[in-house]
Each structure stands twice: as structure tokens, then as C-alpha cells.
Backbone:
């Protein structure tokens, strides 16, 4: 024998509480999803910066050492490096269109520049303010 339906039904308060709980759960899930998406975008941007910096570093490593020395000496003021111009045509560097770059060729520890240099490459997307910096050592061979 079947039981008759409970004619009491759901009250308005029970429905409001259920709706509020479901809304909170959905809000938390959406907030977590948006946070994850933001992290992925930041990670992708940093990956692009690193890739461009490594490409420029490899281009500098492929440049003859004497050319790097001449380039560095042209941009010194009172013996202090003031940063190198990547647009200078004496060193052929390919900087992607939406990026800007700066370079420093510095003495490495106690070695003179004629023997070994520390190369610092900084890149950023033109509209951003944070620079990504990579450094490497190049020896005169």
C-alpha cells in the first residue's frame, strides 16, 4: 500500500536557504576559477618574457667578442656603462615588435672586459612596467 504524499511541502524559508547555499557554492567556484585563470595569464606572460630574453642572450653570445667590446666602449660615460642601445645597427639583434629591451655588458668579478664579461638582458612588453632580467657570462675565446 502506498503512503499518501506529505501535503506539508517545502516552505519559502527552506527554499531561500537552499538558494543561498547554492549561490555561495557557485560564487566560491567561480572565484577559484577566475583566480586560476589569472595565474595562467601571468605565467604565460612571464614565459614570453623569458623566451625573448633567452633569444636575445643567444644572439649576443653568437656575436663576435670584439664586436661586443666595441659596442660596449661606445656607450660608456666616464668609465661607467650607461646601457646599450638595442637599435644600434652595429650589433644585429632582433627584438620582437611588442617588446623593448636593454643590455649591459659588465666586467665579471675581477676579470677585465677584454677577458670575460657579464651580459645582462632586460625585456618587457612595451605597455608594462615590470622588467624580466637574465644574465650570462661570455668569455673571450
Residues:
Amino acid at each position: 500500500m502506498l503512503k499518501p504524499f506529505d501535503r506539508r511541502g517545502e516552505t519559502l524559508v527552506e527554499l531561500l536557504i537552499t538558494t543561498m547555499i547554492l549561490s555561495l557554492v557557485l560564487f566560491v567556484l567561480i572565484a577559484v576559477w577566475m583566480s586560476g585563470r589569472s595565474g595562467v595569464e601571468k605565467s604565460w606572460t612571464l614565459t614570453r618574457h623569458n623566451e625573448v630574453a633567452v633569444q636575445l642572450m643567444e644572439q649576443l653570445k653568437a656575436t663576435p667578442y670584439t664586436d661586443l667590446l666595441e659596442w660596449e666602449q661606445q656607450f660608456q660615460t666616464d668609465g661607467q656603462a650607461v646601457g646599450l642601445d638595442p637599435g644600434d645597427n652595429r650589433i644585429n639583434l632582433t627584438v620582437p615588435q611588442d617588446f623593448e629591451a636593454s643590455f649591459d655588458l659588465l666586467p665579471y668579478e675581477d676579470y677585465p672586459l677584454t677577458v670575460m664579461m657579464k651580459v645582462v638582458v632586460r625585456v618587457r612588453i612595451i605597455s608594462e612596467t615590470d622588467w624580466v632580467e637574465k644574465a650570462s657570462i661570455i668569455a673571450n675565446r
In short: The chain has two helices and five strands. Confidence is low (pLDDT under 50) at residues 78-82. Helices lie at 12-62, 65-74.
